[in-house]
Every structure is written in C-alpha cells, then in structure tokens.
Amino acid sequence: MEFALSEDQRMLQDSLKGVLNETASLDRIRKIAVGDAGEAAILDGALTEFGLAALMVPEAAGGLGLGALDACLVQEALGYNVAPSRFLATAVAAKALAGKADLLIASGEAKFALALTEVSSRRDGAGVELKGGKLSGKSLLAQSVDGATHILVADTAGAWHSVSAMDAGVTVMQTIDRTRTFHEVTLDGAEPLASVTPAAEVLALARLLVAADTLGAAQAMIDKAVAYAKERQQFGRVIGSFQAVKHMCAEMAAKLEPARALIWHAAHALDIADEEGPMMANLAKAHLAEVGTFVARTATEVHGGMGFTDLVGLHYWYKRIGVNRQLLGSPEQARQAAAELQGLVV
What is the CATH superfamily name and number for domain 112-196? Predict the structure, then answer.
C-alpha cells in the first residue's frame, strides 16, 4: 500500500501553489494587511476562479465532491502564503449544511462566514441563544465576515444556524494577525435560514483545517530560515555552516514533518468515516499549535535581528500561527475534546 498523495491531489496542490505564487506575493499581503481592498479583491478573484468554493460540495449538486484531505492540502497552501481566504469557512459550511445549501455554495451565490468561537470557549457577555425561533446575542472572532452573504453561527445549546449577513451587526475585532480580519457578530431577533445539530466530525474538520493552515505557515518559516542561513554571512562564512544554526533548522524540520503525517491521517480518517477521525483531528489541532509555535520562534531566531523587520516580513507568518493556536480552541481544549471522544473523561 502506498501512503502518499494521489496524482490528482498533487496536481490540485501544485496548481493552487502556482496561483498563489502569482497573486499572493509578500508585497500584496503587506497591502492587504493595511486594508487595501483592491489588492484583496484581486486575490479573492483568483481564488474564486480557481473554484475553491465547490471543493467539498457533492458532485450531484454541482461541486467537486472532494474530501477532508483535499481541503487540508488547499488550506496548507493558503497558510504557506499567509493568504486571506474564505475557503475554511466555505468548507466547514458545506460540511455542516450538507443537503441544505449545496447549490448556493457551489455556485458562489452563498458566501459563508463562521461565528463558532463560543463552541470552544465563551467570554462574559458573549454567546448566541435561540428563543422563540429567533437568535439573539453576540459571537466573537467571527471569520470571513467581509463580503459574506450568510453566517454560520453556533448557539449556546450546541446547534448551528445559517443566518443572512444582512440580519447581523458586525464590528471589526483587531488581532495581531493582519492577514485576516475578524469580527464581532451581533444578532437581535434574526431568523435562522437553516439549523443543524452538527456531528463531531464537523467541528473536527474546522479544527483540522486550522492545523493545516499552521502547517503551511510553519513550513514557509522553515524554508525562509534555511534560505537565509545559506545567504547570511558572519565571520566570513554563511551562518548555515555553523553547527548551532544547522541544529536549529534540523530540529524545526524534525518536529514539523511528522505533523504533516498526523494531519493526513486525521483527514483520511474523516473521509472514510473512521470513528477515530474526530479524535485524531483534535489531536492534530493541539499538536500543530505547539509545533507551529516552536517553529515560529526558532525560525525568527535563525534570522537574528532581521527576523523582526518588515523587510523580511516574517512576522506575518509568526502572528498567523499565534492566532491559529487559539482559533476554534486552544491546545488544551482540543485535547480535552479528544479525551471526551475516547470516553476518557466525562
């Protein structure tokens, strides 16, 4: 048995990497980070044309009918280029609302945002409640709200609801990650367009995609550190020839490569409906949060003082990994969920 990507999966990732290399340069990411809507529209248009919205919609509904592993490959490529994208929100919405919004998602008519932060943790004053068939309350750190037509929001009872973005009040929430914009979403009597009680696999997929994003960002930081070590000279030698720098680069690679296998395994388990899929996805989220943090710190150290400059731009990847660590659940919360799925805690 060959434990590797299929030819189609390699072609998918290679094709997307080509698009991102052309449309998500560091210069464009810098402009998007300071609010250049025109540059963001160029990138969004390229990704829309690529057809990412239809990736996880069944073929019968006009989609591509691909699975969690394909989605992880896409998200890894987006993380590698720190590209802002609606893909994660679209993929999770397609999984959660299967059979309810397939045609709208596949056609691009429905563009989803995610307001699921309170599934993992809730601050005082936050949380959405369903009363009398209407939703009220607020959700923090909602993703992909800009340009969204629909919002997938979780209530305090565990149900998820699709609501019109027109029925929500939104306020920008600034984080350290300037490659993505997060919002506070406020609902006041909004009527759900569709409601579901999602299986564990849906939240697991969302967390796994965050892990895949961290995987891509961390790989980019390693590649940048290695390239810098081959060029930067100290005492008449490239710093990559010093044993200490070699060890730092080797340790980053040694920690990250097994994490890739963990994500692939978790995604495959979700695709074949293996009962350990959700558990493995949660563990992948927790593990990548910690490995990503290590890589971000170590890659910055390899760069020395240059690692803190905007000229190198390493901070975009560093901060994205930092926000991903907490997004949809901290490592501790993801491990708790994995333990509950195994019946180890109640």
Answer: Butyryl-CoA Dehydrogenase, subunit A, domain 2 (2.40.110.10)
- Per the DSSP assignment, residues forming a β-bridge with 182 are 143, 173
- pLDDT tens profile 287-332: 999 999 999 999 999 999 888 888 889 999 999 999 999 999 999 9
Q: Is the separation of the CB atoms in 322 and 293 below 8 Å? A: yes
* Dist CA 164 CA 259 (whole Å): 37
DSSP H helical segments within the chain, as ranges?
7-23, 26-33, 37-50, 68-80, 87-96, 102-107, 117-120, 200-231, 243-271, 277-303, 314-326, 331-341
Instruction: Round to whole Å and give the CA distance between 241 and 104.
Output: 55
pLDDT (tens digit per residue) in 159-176: 999 999 999 999 999 999
Beta bridge partners of 113: 151
Give domain limits for the chain.
7-88, 112-196, 200-341
* Banded pLDDT at 2 (limits 50, 70, 90): low
For residue 14, report the phi and psi dihedrals to the nearest 5 degrees.
-65, -40
Task: With H, G, I as helix, E, B as strand and everything else as coil, classify residue 314.
Answer: helix
109-167 tens-digit pLDDT = 999 999 999 998 888 888 999 999 999 999 999 999 999 999 999 999 999 999 999 99
**CATH hierarchy code of domain 200-341:** 1.20.140.10
Residues pairing with 82 in the sheet:
none
User: Which residues neighbour 201 within 8 Å (Cβ) at sequence distance 6 or greater?
Assistant: 95, 270, 273, 277, 278
How high is the pLDDT of residue 121? 84
The alpha carbons of the chain give a radius of gyration, in whole angstroms, of 20
SS3 of residue 5 by DSSP = coil
